[in-house]
Amino acid sequence: MTYKLLALLLIIFLSPFIGGLYGVLHDQLTYTISPEYYTRFKFYQFGLWEEGQVRAEGHRLNAAVVGFLATWWMGIPIGIIIGAVGLLQKNAKRMLTVSFRAMGIVMVVALLTGLLGLAVGYTFENGEGWWLPEKLVYRKDFIAVGSMHNYSYLGGLVGLVAGIIYMGYRKRRYDKIDQQSDTSIL
Predict the structure, then answer these.
(1) Domain limits of the chain?
(2) pTM score
(3) CA torsion angle for 154, 157, 162, 167 (degrees, to 10)?
């Protein structure tokens, strides 16, 4: 049990960094689609720029900072839940393998759900009910990226459920293999 406890602590410790890395990559993509979403909204929201300040340099780096700050904290509950479910695995090595694969599932589902949000933003969102800065040049891109961000958080929750289902599947599969191995020895 000691190794599994260490594995749990490792999962929980690394989860905010994994969540933050997801956010960095996510926001590099969304910055490419709508720089205005950052230069007119997110950089101010996260205190990277003072209101009214406009600069030509450092946007991508600032987008990476926003991405990390917006998502690192999601890694904590996801890591705690996945780590706790991972304790059901037979040993620490299996626990780590299954848990980190489950985190990969969470990220893939979050990305796919976010891409759905991007499509919804372009297709159905007209900006009604949205806060939109004045003098937006690329309004539809701004709305679509905002929609992608919102859907991505939902995707994190859906991905967590998918990751847990995967972990249950792997547990049953490994248990079956272990049983077959035990009976073949007899």
Answers:
(1) 2-185
(2) 0.89
(3) 160
The two tokens of residue 110 are 């979050």
Alpha carbons 140 and 119: distance in angstroms, whole number? 11
Could you give the 3-state DSSP secondary structure of residue 67? helix
Q: Which residues, in sequence order, are CB contacts of 3 under 8 Å at separation 6+?
A: 91, 92
- Is the model's pLDDT at 111 over the cut of 80? yes
Which residue in 76, 52, 45 sits closest to 149, CA to CA? 45
Q: pLDDT tens, 71-103?
A: 999 999 999 999 999 999 999 999 999 999 999
Task: Please state the separation of Cα 170 from the chain's center in Å.
Answer: 22
- Distance between CA atoms of 45 and 40, rounded to whole angstroms? 9
